[in-house]
Amino acid sequence: MPKAHGIGYMRQNIIEDVWADIFDVAQSTISRYITFLTPFVELATEEDRPAAEDAAEATRNAIALVDGTLWPCWSWNGESKLWSGKYKTTGHGSLIVTNLQGRITFVSEPVTGNQHDMAKLKGSDVEEILKKAGGVFGDKGFIGTDYLTTPIRAPARSAIYKGGSLLGLMAGRAFAGHSVFSCACGLGCLAAGVAGGAIRSRRGLRSAPAAS
Question: Are 32 and 2 in contact (CB under 8 A)?
């Protein structure tokens, strides 16, 4: 039973109260099992979590994708910094770096959920990793960097910016087939969409004419 609790909680993010109902035990019992098992999961996956130096070398001169994600957690009283306005829930945020095939090369250390992607990026290991890449694609959360290719916001009250549409089309082609990635990292499995802006462009790509 403890193994089922740990795997279900870490991989499926099923809350403790639900597990308590499934196994007809107290929520506090589930909490004790999770607290007991978490260090073992961390230890077992330690060698599979690349260091920043390894990730930088693997990304050097290659195409990289980057996106932010949120690890949801309990809404603790007095911990307002855990609230993420983007996800409308509480948790800790990380940045995920993958190669063009969607294979994860680095996961940043979690920070409070109130920090947006650019705040997590500036001065971080992820920034150093991406600056060594041959090219980087990200979503609108990374607009403002000089080394990431992102969708372009159309000017207010105007027609769609043609340059932005072309850039979105290029990003969509780069992301084709790799809009969703998954991995085992840290305390469980991550499943997240990569670069939402580029994914939306990819949907429009199906009816776009082929480049000449």
Answer: no
Alpha carbon distance 31, 29 (integer Å): 5
| Bridge partners, residue 68, by sequence | 95
Neighbour-count burial of 95, counting CB atoms closer than 10 A to its CB (0-12 exposed, 13-18 middle, 19+ buried): buried
Q: Is residue 11 part of a domain?
A: yes
Q: Which two tokens stand for residue 199?
A: 């994914």
Q: Which domain holds residue 10?
A: 2-44
Ramachandran region, residue 202 (left: φ > 0; alpha: ψ -120 to 50; beta: rest): alpha
Percent of residues in the chain assigned helix, strand, coil, to nearest 5: 40, 25, 35
**What global pTM score does this model have?**
0.66
Q: pLDDT tens digit string along 175-202?
A: 544 443 333 333 233 323 323 332 233 3
pLDDT in tens, 81-105: 999 999 999 999 999 999 989 899 9
Count: domains in the chain: 2
Co-location of 9 and 81 in the same domain: no
